[in-house]
Amino acid sequence: MRGLKSLIVGLLSAFFSTAFGLYFPPDVEQLPTITAQTSGSFIALPFDENFLFKCEAKGNPRPTYRWTKDGMDFDLHKDSQLIKEESSGSFLIPKDMAKYEGKYRCYASNKLGTAISEESELVVPMTPKFPKKKIEPAVVTEGDSVVLECNPPQGIPPSQLYWMTNDLQHIEQNERVTMGLNGNLYFSNTLMSDSHDEYSCFASFSKIRTIVQKPPMVLRVKPSQGDDGIKSVQKRKPSILVPSSHSTTYLKKGEALELECIAEGLPTPVVEFIKMWENLPNRTQIKNYGKVLTIPNVTEQDEWKYMCKAKNDLGEDEHYFQVVVEEPPSWQEEPVKSQLVEIGSDIHIKCSARGKPQPTITWKRNGQPLDDFPSTNYKVLDDRIIILRAQQRDTAVYQCEASNRHGTLLFNANVLVMNHPPLILTRDYLEYSTMLGKSVIMDCEVFSSPPPTINWRREDPEGSLDGERYSLLKNGSLQIHKVEMEDMGQYKCLAKNSEGTMSLTIELFIKDSTRIVEPPQDTKVKRGSMAKLECQAECDPTLRRELEILWMKDGMNILSNFSERYFTNDGTLQIVSVSHSDQGKYTCVVRTSLDQDTASAYITVLDIPDPPVQLTLSERKDRSVRLHWAAASDHNSPITEFIIQYEENNWDPENWKELLRVAGSQISAPLTLYGHINYQFRVIAVNAIGRSLPSMPSERYKTPPCAPDRNPENIKIEGRLPHQMDISWEPLLPVEHNGPGLEYKLSYRLMGVEDSWKEEMIKRDSFVVRDTQTFVPYEVKIQAFNNHGWAPEPRVVTGYSGEDSPLAAPANISVEVLNSTLLRVSWSPVPQTALRGHLGGYTVHWWQTQSLLTSKRIPLERKSLTIPGNRSHTMVPGLKPFFEYSLTVNIFNRRGNGPSSSPISFTTPQGVPEQPPILRATNFQKDSITLVWAPPHETNGFLTGYLLQYQTVNETLGELKSVNISAPDTTQWVLRDLQDDNWYKFYLSACTQVGCGSAISEEGGTVFEVLSSKQAVASQEWFVAIMCGVALLTLLVLIGCFVIKNKSGKYAVKEKEETPADPEAQAMGEESPCDSDNDKKPLKSSQPLFTDIKEDDSSEDDSIEFDEDGSFIGEYTGNKRRGSTEVNGHAPVTS
Hints:
Blueprint: E1 8-10, H1 13-17, E2 30-37, E3 40-43, E4 51-53, E5 55-60, E6 64-69, E7 72-74, E8 83-84, E9 91-93, E10 102-110, E11 113-116, E12 120-123, E13 138-141, E14 146-148, E15 159-164, E16 177-179, E17 185-187, E18 196-205, E19 210-213, E20 217-222, E21 236-242, E22 247-252, E23 257-260, E24 262-266, E25 270-275, E26 285-287, E27 292-295, E28 305-312, E29 315-331, E30 338-341, E31 347-350, E32 353-356, E33 360-365, E34 368-369, E35 378-381, E36 384-387, E37 396-404, E38 407-417, E39 420-424, E40 430-435, E41 440-442, E42 446-449, E43 453-460, E44 470-472, E45 478-480, E46 489-497, E47 500-511, E48 515-518, E49 523-526, E50 531-534, E51 536-538, E52 548-553, E53 556-557, H2 558-561, E54 566-569, E55 572-575, E56 584-591, E57 596-606, E58 613-618, E59 624-630, E60 639-648, E61 657-663, E62 668-672, E63 678-687, E64 701-702, E65 713-718, E66 724-730, E67 743-750, E68 758-762, E69 766-770, E70 777-786, E71 789-790, E72 797-800, E73 811-817, E74 823-828, H3 832-835, E75 839-851, E76 863-868, E77 873-876, ...
Parallel strand pairs: 3-12, 13-20, 22-29, 30-38, 40-47, 49-57, 76-88
Antiparallel strand pairs: 1-43, 2-5, 4-9, 6-7, 6-10, 8-9, 10-11, 10-12, 14-17, 15-18, 16-17, 18-19, 18-20, 21-24, 23-27, 25-28, 26-27, 28-29, 29-32, 31-36, 33-34, 33-37, 35-36, 37-38, 39-42, 41-45, 43-46, 44-45, 46-47, 48-51, 50-55, 52-53, 52-56, 54-55, 56-57, 58-59, 59-62, 60-61, 60-63, 63-64, ...
């Protein structure tokens, strides 16, 4: 190990001998030091229960206490009434405090010396009283001056003086009659009305809650008479009563200066104050009717010569004041409280004070005058003491008192003369931690006398402490700048003086820096929503438990200074219900005991704008005005537009309507106005967050009346009855009247027939023209009018008078049966003269008359199809195969239906049958299977037989085989020559002459071996049971189908004029093998086919509606019958 001479430093003796607050180890003797005391002057009020004189001190050995009162020893133990504190020198005076009035001082002593407290005074005042003596009346001649003396008793300030009568009425004061600062009542001159028998002076002492009254005084004012007996009051020039002679006023800096100047004379003098050769300061106050000058909180600049001047018409009088501003003692520099010096050195105790007058310095040692300790090594030089070659006997508490007439300062200086070996106060084997690149200070606090030399060296590992990075501080500590990893290890501090040596070992650890890895990001948030800031940090693993994350807003701790809306958790700050006050800079502070890192983000609060302000009007014209405004705060979201609203107080008061919108960059806008309206305006600002509240309304602006600007619009001409025409229109808004007396001129005439107009003046918004021809064209125009003129010439509109039902039916009806379910029908249009109205369209009606299969007549069930517009053909879908039908066509308009055409008959051809309702595979044998089924419910023609197909469905599909069953009554079939142990799928469809319908499927398999006779019998029994069940099930299905057929099966398709489609090209030749099932399945077409299929009033069947070109515009569905899986067509697809 190697010591470094560059870091061997001997600490200066002066540092230890003059250190403020020098620390003494507990086992080292110490002089007494006063730590708590009572100082100043205190008044014991009558209602005070007790008074505490405090005196506490520290020292080693523990100090003892004694007191003096008025300079004499005051033994607390001889007075049983006093309450003494055992742990200190404090004592409590009980309520009866009169006998304890005086000045007290505490002395705290141990074997090394004595410290003394500041002097404190207890004042126990007596109750103030005016002397009871007879006061002779004051008799003066009218016009003379007089003084009524108060001479108030001494009492506890503050006191208040005033003059009253016996009935407690205040004596009126003015420029002539004034109470002085001393309480006397001064009359500059007297009037006869001043004569009273009850002038009383009152003195109020608020601290002791006492008011005393002087016995009443009598003032007699005699009339003034000349030598000739005529009343005469002699005038005289002023004469100053107060002050009576030249005076010098002394006061402390900071007090209030009061200069009083009261003069007598007739007429009443006027008093003026002057600061010689300078102006009075601005804070000067003139009170008491101009007779008192007050300057609060005086400074050195107020020390001057002042003059008061009293003058009237006959002359003037003057008085001069010399004002001297003084100061109580104060330290020029704070004296040293404690000095530790080695034996044989010189001691300097300095006590420099300032004040006005200059304070007198008095020295004491251990509370006794320094002159009582004759010594050859003391030198007293004005404000300091020098002790030469100090010895242990010079150890003491030296007191310095600086005094002038305004107060006294006391200072205790502890001087300890001793030699002591080094005592290291820092704990041994202390561990220090710091961060890489930071600075660290390792303490080595030493107590010793004389001062030690301090030597630091590197222990483990050994290393050099040379270089600029290493500094030894005055207190012996070692500071390492910009710590490096190589600095980690043990260090030793050695302290040495003439009395001995002591060492200290310290270890230094280098930690990873604390740093923020995910700083908070600037964010914008709407007012009222939640804001969230994230702050994630990393630190040395050994400091993880003490890692602390704090949040600051604009430099203040959030948790200490903000509301409960702030929540922090694991580096996340959440602010709920964000308000404008939450906007600001937020700082994340991540800290450990060794270092910290910070990162900041700014939260911007977005809100709707504040309402615009400063609305004014300019460029006022008859029909326009310019509105100006000023934008207010946009709350961090730019204003995109302004909405200008208006309100008028005639037609719709207090209802604001939008007038104009302008860009957010504008601050004015021209407004086009209606006539005869009393406007006021307001503005709303809009930003991305929303609309502001409306601004305050502008002043009102009334436009003059004028003719209407426009005519009514949306004129409607309708004929609700055959011989009249109803005309209606959209009237002008009230604000569009532009003036009083609004009416409408309605003009109409037969188009192409009449040249002249028929006219009507109307105030309402509709009119009925009666006795018109049926459905003839008219020309109509409507013009607005008010008391100030006509609106512009109106435009002419055309319309028709009332409609009536059509007179004729369509002719030349022809039908073309396209397939078993679809029919094409055509006709010739009805002439316009027979239509008698607006063409609505055509309606096709059809109904079944009989079944061609059974020749049975069918009850009338009409169905209808509406074809809107001017069409002459259409398709009729949804017919049933092999039936006879009848069909009619009629036209309709808005008034109603015309007559129907003569019925025309047609028949539909046979179709393919429906799917059989049930198919079951039974009686599974080694090479045969029996199939059982029920016939289809609707054969749609003459049934010719069945098509049975089958194939194996093992791992792959086998060849599809077919069996034609020509007997239509067959309901079971035995398939033979099947392969054993195979699984089969069967398909069965019914057939007519047209073809076969959709197939029903079933699956079953052959067995592997021949059944025994017993098994065969069981199989036969099972087969019989199955057949009975099939027959019962078939019967139930037939009954159910019959019921459903009579109660349902209807379809309706909604009219859809917007997407017409012509089905003719699609419908031709599209009959499928399953047409017989069309009442249960949707038609297969690329477009919906039906529009509006309606029933006649007498029919319960479905209705169908076509669009204008006869195309279907809807679809219809039936009820699907549930059964086995369906296969469309005659046979399934083979693999």
